[in-house]
TrEMBL record:
The keyword Transmembrane applies. Keywords: Membrane, Transmembrane, Transmembrane helix. It comes from the Bacteria. The chain crosses the membrane at residues 21-39, 51-73, 80-103. It comes from Alishewanella agri BL06. This is Uncharacterized protein.
Length: 106
C-alpha cells in the first residue's frame, strides 16, 4: 500500500509523457466542436442556433482544459493530480457528446 501512495505522490513524470498528455488534451478539446458539427449537419444553420449554448460551453471547457494541461506541462505536479485531470477531461467529453446528441435529436 505504501508503494501506491509513493507513486501517486511522485512528481517525476517524464517530459515526453507530459507532452503527450498536453497533445491529447488539445485533441480532446476539439472533439466537442466536431460532435456539434456532425449532429447539426442535416440543417446546419437551424441546428447550430439551437446548440449555441453548447458551443459556448465547449469553448469555455476547451480553454479550461488547455490551461490546466499547460500548467501540468510546465510545472511539477503529483501523479494523482494528472490522473484526476485526465478523468475529468474524459468525463466532460462523454457528458457533452451525449447531451448534444440528445438535444439535437429532440
Amino acid at each position: 500500500m505504501n508503494k501506491i501512495k509513493e507513486q501517486l505522490l511522485a512528481t517525476d513524470l517524464a517530459d515526453w509523457r507530459k507532452k503527450g498528455i498536453f497533445t491529447v488534451v488539445i485533441l480532446l478539446s476539439v472533439f466537442p466542436f466536431f460532435i456539434t458539427y456532425k449532429t447539426s449537419l442535416p440543417d446546419l444553420e437551424d441546428n447550430l442556433w439551437q446548440l449555441r449554448h453548447f458551443v459556448g460551453i465547449a469553448a469555455i471547457q476547451a480553454v479550461a482544459q488547455i490551461s490546466l494541461a499547460w500548467y501540468i506541462l510546465k510545472n511539477k505536479v503529483p501523479n494523482y493530480v494528472i490522473g484526476s485531470f485526465i478523468i475529468i477531461a474524459m468525463f466532460f467529453q462523454v457528458t457533452y457528446g451525449i447531451s448534444v446528441i440528445f438535444v439535437s435529436n429532440a
